[in-house]
């Protein structure tokens, strides 16, 4: 175990996809409130080493029907994080069985920063998406699968 109490390492982060569409008919793009947000995590374990994995995190603001619903924009960003459990144990659990909530939390902080930066650079109100309860998010995702 590391000195700080976790063997989970984030080896890299990248934006895999970004879709941004603005509703120019929206009255006040400088004052965006009540953001509809969707978060979909997709963990994938390495075939060669269960201590390594890739987490896709798709964060969507509003949806593709943003114009019809009179929403200010549609933004979808998909981030990919590469994670490793540095405490190698061939008989142990895979990296996401052990650390999925932690991995989502780490990657979500990148999503929040990207969304705030992008919306500000695009000339509209900087959108600060809220923090989320990751355990509740995972419960909700599991209930949707059932």
From TrEMBL:
Lineage: superkingdom: Bacteria
Name assigned to this protein: Preprotein translocase subunit SecB
InterPro entries: SecB-like_sf (IPR035958)
